[in-house]
Amino acid sequence: MVYLEQQSGYLSQFADSQIAPLLNEILKQEVGEFSDDIHNAGDLALNLLICLKSNDDQNALKYYTIFNKRQPTKDSHWIYDNYVLFAIVCTVRKFNFDTQWIRNVISISYNGADSINKRIKDTFRNILAENYNAKGDFHQVSLVYQYLANDGHYQNEAINKMFHHLWLKSFPFFEEDFLNVLSIKAIEIAFSKKALLTDREFYYLNGFVPSFNARADLFAKIFSRLIIIGLIALVFYVIWKLNNSEKDYPLTVKMIVFLSSFSGVGVFAIWGWKGNFASFFRTFINKLFNYNEQR
Description:
Layout: H1 4-12, H2 20-27, H3 41-54, H4 57-68, H5 82-94, H6 100-110, H7 115-128, H8 139-148, H9 156-166, H10 177-193, H11 199-243, H12 251-259, H13 266-271, H14 274-288
Helix pairs in contact: 2-3, 3-4, 3-5, 5-7, 7-8, 8-10, 9-10, 11-14
Keywords: Membrane, Transmembrane, Transmembrane helix
Transmembrane segments: 222-240, 252-273
C-alpha cells in the first residue's frame, strides 16, 4: 500500500519538472490556468485536461483541433508520452469527438512499445470504446478518466479489482511513472467511493502494516542468519570430530567435509543461501498470521 510519506516523497521529484502542471490537473481538485503555448504537446495536453475538468467543450474542441491537424509519424516524440495521450483520449471520449485520428496515433506508437505500454494503450482504446472493465486493462487509468470527466457511473468490479491488487503491493507499483501517478489518484478515488476509513482501518493502513512489514522482514533476516550460522557451526564441528577421531574415514567422506569447509566453497555457498532462507521465513510468517501481502 502507498504510505503517505512514500507518496509525498515520490511525487516531490516532479515538483519542478515540465510535467508538474499536468500532474496537478490529474491529482488535485483545483483547476489550473490555460497555457499560452499551443505548439508544445505537453501544454496542449494540459489545456485539454483543464477543459475536461471544467466541462468546457468549446475550448476543448479548439485545442483538440490544433492537435489533430498534426500528422504524426513513428519519430514524433509526443506520441510516446502517456500523459499527452491520456489527455487527448479523455477529451475525445468526454466530448464525443471523432476518434479516428487519436486511434491512428495510438496505433503508430503501439508497435514499438513494451508489454506494459501496450497494456496502457489498450486501456486507452477501451476508454474510447466506453469499455471501462475490459480484462487485462489498467483499471486505474479508466477510473481516473471517469473521475476527471465527472462520469459517476463507476463499475464496482473494476474498482475492487484495482483496489485489491494495489492494496498491499510494494510502492512504486510499476517502473512506469504514469501508472504510479494514476494509481495514487485511483486509490484516493476508491477510498472516497468506498467511504472514509474508520480509525481502526486508518491505523491498520498507516500504523500496523508498515510496522508489521518492517518487524517481519527483520525477524526473517535474523532467523535466516541464525540458521546459516548453525549450519556453519555444524560443519566445523564435524571437521573437528574427524580430525580428532582415531578412526580412519573413507576418502569420499573427507572430500565432502573438505568441500564444506573454508578450504572449499561449502561455507560460502551456505552463507549465500541467507536470502532464500529469509524469503522462506517471511512467507511462513505471512501464512502463520494469515497476512495477505502482495509484494
